[in-house]
Automatic annotation (TrEMBL):
Region of interest (Disordered), residue spans: 133-179
The protein, known as: Similar to Saccharomyces cerevisiae YMR149W SWP1 Delta subunit of the oligosaccharyl transferase glycoprotein complex
Sequence ranges of Acidic residues compositional bias: 136-167
Membrane-topology descriptor: Multi-pass membrane protein
GO cellular component: oligosaccharyltransferase complex
Signal peptide (from-to): 1-18
Taxonomic superkingdom: Eukaryota
Gene Ontology molecular function: any one: transferase activity
GO biological process: protein N-linked glycosylation
Keywords assigned: Endoplasmic reticulum, Membrane, Signal, Transferase, Transmembrane, Transmembrane helix
Pfam families for the chain: Ribophorin_II_C
Localization (cell): Endoplasmic reticulum membrane
Amino acid sequence: MKLFNTSYLLALPVLATASQWKLTSGELAVVSGKSTEFKQSFSAEKSIDDLILVPKGSSIDLSIETEGVNSNRAHQTVAILSSKELGLDISYPFSMRVSGKGKLSIPLKSIPELFLSDRVGKLSLELAVGGFGYTEQEDTSEEEDEDVESETEEEEDEESETEGEEAENAKSATPKRTPKQITKNIEPLLIKITDNISIANKLHYPREASPKRFGIKPEIHHIFRPDPRQVNAAFASLLILVGITSTVLFLAGAWIFFVGVDLADLAPAFKASGPAHAAFLLSIGAIEYTFFQYYKGVSIFDTIKSLAIIAPASVYFGSRALREVKARRLAGK
């Protein structure tokens, strides 16, 4: 569909007269099933003025016969259905034969629903026939080639007198001219068939006000989703601290009551390898402090850097401390 131009209808009589196409016969019929509700002929000089009522389930059938300059079958033959109220039109192509006879059936179901609504009045139907043709024109290409040759020979005349005479003979020679076919547009044939097509059972569309396309629009207030709710930081810290403390106490109690740790062994252990035990315990505390700092917001890169320094020391001093414990156990202490 496209916008309908009112000047198009005003130009129909002029274009129909100036066109090199000719409509020899035309007929419109409204067919519903096997019965024919309406049937009437039309021509370029006379359109159909009677009311054409198209009931539900029917179709608009067109049959035409055209004549042209070089061929009776045009390159394009279409029927244009339009509505002045909507300012829209839609085209349907004919099925044409070489003889110039053509047929077209427009079922009601193939017409857009907007054309069938109660917002439009009567529909108009036009016929458009157009194509290309050829005209005879003298082919002067040989003459142009010989002119180029003569100009070249005239330049060489300064060098040789004999060549100058040949150039004059070539210039005075009569060129051969042959007819040449040139494609040109033939003025289309535009005929108004009728403007009294009425749909029997129209669809109901509410007549709403047209939306405002330009101008100031109302201000848009964006409502963003609220931030996700989080647990109170102080409560979370206290809960983690209680969990860590209870875990440490549980491990310490299990170590003392089930493993059988003797606190009297602390003095000999620190006496034999005191720096190793102290450094190992300090490294474990440093690792815990590093993770605590990460929890408070220190970046992961700083955390990894700190662990890379503390971990080797913890492994070294831890191995020294465990060697001392192993030596005492082997000694039976």
